[in-house]
Amino acid sequence: MKTSLVPAIDRDYFEDLSKRAIGALGPNEHLFLVLEAECSQFVRFNQGVRQTGVIDDASLEVTLVLESSPGVLKRASREISLSGISYQDREAIREAVGVLRAEVPALPQDPFAELPKNPGSSMTTKTGNLLATESVPAKILDAVGNSVDLAGIYAAGPVIRGMANSARLVHWFSSEFFSFDYSLYTPAQRAVKGVYGGSEWNDDEFRRSISSALQKLKLLERQPRKIGRGSYRTFLEPAAVGALIEMFSWGAIGESSIRQGESPLRRLRGGEKKLSPRFSLAEDFSGGQTPRFNQVGELAPEKLILIDKGELAHSLVSSRSSKEYGVSGNAAEMDEVLRAPAVEHGTLEQSEVLGRLGTGLHISNLHYLNWSDQNGGRITGMTRYACFWIENGKIVAPIENMRFDDSIFQLFGSNLEDLTRGCEFLPQTGTYDKRSVGGIWVPGMLVSGMQFTL
Question: Do 263 and 185 belong to one domain?
Fold first, then answer.
């Protein structure tokens, strides 16, 4: 059944606010408006339904650029809340522009600021088939059953991103989707983590997700085994691989990080290192889970190959980096992070995973990741949730938590044996400030060795 959640702000409303704000600009003033809005149902589970409600929220980032003389640009931004009540929102934008108008002249020149351009507007509207708001608790609790300790957050509804500028450019992105980020616990408080999300709720798929988690939960009741430090043959499930891929956004795949010598991928560009020919990474917006436009209105390519069979094909290049380094941009965000990452699948069948692994570790999740040596490409973090010791292709016991410290040049390079044939979509589940959009397409990964330190 389709959700009945309807946001207070639609495209017509946003366009009207934008036109009025642009019409009030003075000479040599330019405006960027970036909208983030949602109408979301949240249900928090903790041994039953602990909290439920609906939030309708919208904010607008107002950026004023002053061309104080030809080629001399100054800019400042201010974020405001929108109510969906026209006269109130018009007045809030007018006041924000007034404050910025007073601030901007005193600011230093921004040599990498952009003037508004209009290469063409865009509109993406993706409707979903979500659970009716009143049916959510029963659907989830019936699938889990009464005998299992469940904690999790269900979030669903339309999320909006919009962008307009004083060159009359308007981008609009609206998507209905859901995510259920959950954990199941044994009586000894050992946990299995799962996530189910997308734009189309399917009872059978959800029950399969829960069934898989319950099978792991039963295995966690075995006596855990403490594993010593060393290098182990390891299979990483998609969630664990996704956590490693997220590290590429931490000062690795951006042009600015490469130019400033922070990124380990500068070694790929210089030919000093290569990753495995089995490893390819792209930004792929074709699924429509996240907007292609950035804060200044540029549209990213629908698909951009970043790492092609182990070699660096492209970095993420924002308009600021394009100006600073004199290279072509590809409409990356200003912080040059991954927005729609997709890892190319391999040939390993899921049914063959334990047999190919033989003896070693089966890792479901990783957390607390960070660079231990960013220049050297070394990542450290902890195993988490349902991770197991495997002998001769059989699950023997869950393991106690371990810390790993290893290099991307080994994990995605010399030690990479294969990737699973299928990829899994892992939705972004962040809800701290607002609901995140998008996610990652990622397979599981078999490596001949992964270094664990304690």
Answer: no
Does some domain include residue 330?
Answer: yes
Indicate which CATH number applies to the domain containing 40. 3.30.2290.10
Same domain, 186 and 265: no
Query: What DSSP element (H or E) covers 315?
Result: none
Same domain, 169 and 273: no
Q: What is the enclosing helix (H) or strand (E) of 312?
A: strand 311-312
Radius of gyration of the chain (CA): 24
Taking alpha carbons only, the member of 223, 243, 227, 225 closest to residue 454 is 227
pLDDT bucket at 4, cuts 50 / 70 / 90: low
The whole-number pLDDT of residue 145 equals 87
Give residue-wise pLDDT tens across range 330-341. Answer: 999 999 999 999
Q: Mean pLDDT for the chain?
A: 95
Query: Which phi and psi (to 5°) does residue 137 adopt?
Result: -55, -45
Residues 206 and 346 in one domain: no
Query: Is the per-residue pLDDT at 242 higher than 90?
Result: yes
d(CA 454, CA 451): 10
Check pLDDT > 70 for residue 125. yes
Q: What is the DSSP letter of 166?
A: T
pTM (2 d.p.): 0.94
Range of the domain at 127: 11-219
What count of Cα atoms within 13 Å lies in the side-chain half-sphere of residue 99? 12
Residue type, 148: V
Please give the Cα distance from 149 to 129 (Å, whole number): 28
DSSP secondary structure code for residue 225 in this structure: B
Burial annotation 320-355 (CB, 10 A radius, 16+ → b, else e): bbbeeeeeebbbbbbebbbbbbbbbbbebeeeebbe
In the predicted model, is pLDDT for residue 2 greater than 60? Answer: no
Strand partners, 64: 31, 76
